[in-house]
Structures are given as C-alpha cells and as structure tokens.
Amino acid sequence: MKRFIHTLLLYIGAGFSLLSVSCIREDVSGNTPEANFESLWRIIDRQYCFLDYKHEVYGLDWNEVHERYARRITPSMTNENLFEVLSDMVNELRDGHVNLSSSMATSQYREWFDSYPRNFSDSIQSNYLGKDYIISSGLEYQILENNIGYIYCSSFSNGIGDGNLDQTLNRLAICDGIIIDVRNNGGGNLTTAQKLAARFTNEKTLVGYISHKTGPGHQDFSAPKEVYIEPSNGIRWQKKAVVLTNRRSYSATNDFVNCMKQFPNVTVVGDKTGGGSGLPFSSEIPNGWSIRFSASPMFDPAMEQLEFGIDPDVKVDMTSEDMQRGKDTLIETACQILKKQE
Questions:
Q1: Rounded to whole angstroms, how far apart are CA atoms 288 and 106?
Q2: Spatial separation of the C-alpha atoms in residues 333 and 342, rounded to whole Å
Q3: Complete DSSP assignment for 25-62
C-alpha cells in the first residue's frame, strides 16, 4: 500500500508541478480584442496536448482556425461578442476539459455527450436502490433481489475513506457478484478513482502511461511514464464485477474505467465513455479571463489515446420497452452476465 501511495503522490505531484508552470500569464501587449484573441490562440498552440492527435483524428488545423476566427475579431466588438467568438474557437478542440471562464459565463463543449443516448434514469434507478439503500462516502449501495451487489458512484470529487470501502465490500461479500455504476459521473479526483479501482486487483497492474508537456512545440512531451495500480491493503473484491458506463462518464471516471478494464474479473457494460483523459490545467489571457485546457495526455497499456473515450466490453443501450416497465437495460444485462459466471 505504501508503494501505491508513493506512486500516486509522484503522479499527482508531477501534475501540480506542471500546474505551477501553466498558470503563468501569457504576455501579449495590450488588452484589446485582438490581443486577447492572439493570447488565447497562442496558449492553446503552445500548451494544449492533443493538437497533433486531433489533426490525425478529425483534421483539426490550428493555424487554419487562427485564420478563420481572426476575421471575426474587430477593435470595437463588445466583451459579449468577444467571449462568443473565443468560446467558439476553443470548442473546435472538441474537449470537455477546455473551458473559457469570464464574469459573464463559462464556455462548455457539450457535443461529446449530446449526440449519444443518456442510458440512465434517476427514477428507474430508484427502483433498484429502493428506500433502504446505504450511503457511505458518497457511494450508494444495495443488495438486489437476485443477490447481486449494486454500488452507484456519482462523483469522484469527494474522498472515499478506506474504512468506508472496507465496510461496503464486507457487507456485499455475500453477493454473487457486484455492479459498479459510474454513469453520469463527471469525474473529480484521480486519487479517489484509483483508490476504488485498487479494491479489484490482487497484483500490481499496468493501467497506462502519462506524458507531460515540456515545450511549446506540438510534439514537445516527456517520455511516457508507466502508471500502475497496486492492490489495496484493505478488503479486496474477489468475485466477478461489472462496471456500467455511459457517455457522461468523464475525466477521472474515464481513467477509472480504463483501470478496471485491465482487471481479468471485470466486464465493462454500457456505452462508450466520454473521454477527457488529458489532465486539465489553467492559464489566463490579458483581460483576466481564464482558460482551462488539457496539458498531459494519458494512454492505455497499449499506448492508445483515451481522449475520445473507452469502448465497453459489452455495448448496451437502454430500450424503450424496458424503460416503460421501469427496468434499466444496463443493470439487467449486468445481472445476467454476473449470474452466468457464478
């Protein structure tokens, strides 16, 4: 466990080290619309970590973006119009981690989930949780009627205590299998996500790699560094498990799903995750607006990018027939998989 914590501290420490560098202000003369536009474009050009990758995937040409959006910048434009243009520009990156924030609003790229089915319903989920479910460190759990354990994790923003995890897994030990539902989990703390994943492996496991930006060039990165999950010293789950995902499983949740997918006793069921694998950092343009962006790419053990999401082992969408009957197609499929593997 000490080795696991040490690895995570090094991992997070490297991110904080980069954060201290990337939060410096990009000096551009003046505070005009043109200066703010040039500053924002340059920050992305020098520090964003996926420019070459997104050029490869969908033809993003950041220089062409500059030319196209520069024509929309005028000296007399209002702050509202400038914010609209700059928001449109950063949305060309198709990255939910890229947000421009001002006193007026914060830009968001929503297309990464809007074109996918939701595959989740609070009201239908309540049919499975019932009225006597238990909440522990933000985890909601219940033993279903078929003796399958069900855990819903809505966020990794808050810490999950080791004692709480021990208690939860101990209570669910009588179950034939376990479902970990991370649908609509928008992410949070990587340490928390990896702490939960460490309860599902008995050996040190390579779960991927991470690189850090080292210079202004699009290919200026450190050598990929291995990321491992070491087994927890607490109670570990020894039976089969299913992880439920949808397109709104994002950021740290994307990392969690990638970790769980490397374990032999885990099956991922549902829809492709939302991605958001790059660690987000922040900078500022001359007028004080802040820009949050992805600066450190993460990869799976095969060195494949995780930015656009992780495919499930079993692709399942909620059906209208099941929803009319108050059934969750993903939960029902997970139960069938776990029962077959008894």
A1: 13
A2: 15
A3: B---SS-SHHHHHHHHHHHHHHH-S-HHHHHHHH---H
Residue 342 in tokens: 């008894």
User: Residue 96: phi, psi to the nearest 5?
Assistant: -70, -15
> How is residue 306 written in tokens?
């995780």
Prediction pTM value: 0.88
pLDDT tens string for the chain (342 positions)? 434 334 333 333 333 333 333 343 344 568 999 999 999 999 999 999 999 999 999 999 999 999 999 999 999 999 999 999 999 999 999 999 999 999 999 999 988 888 899 999 999 999 999 999 999 988 999 999 999 999 999 999 988 999 999 999 999 999 999 999 999 999 999 999 999 999 999 999 999 999 999 999 999 999 999 999 999 999 999 999 999 999 999 999 999 999 999 999 999 999 999 999 888 889 999 999 999 999 999 999 999 999 999 999 999 999 999 999 999 999 999 999 999 854
Q: Which two three-digit tokens encode residue 94?
A: 């198709």
DSSP helix, strand, coil percent of the chain (3-state; round to 5): 40, 20, 40
List the structure tokens of 280.
Answer: 């987000």
CA pair distance 95, 256, nearest whole angstrom: 19
> Given the structure tokens 């900078």, which residue do they identify?
283
Q: Which positions ≥6 away from 20 have C-beta within 8 Å?
A: none
Q: Is the distance from CB of 242 to CB of 266 less than 8 angstroms? A: yes
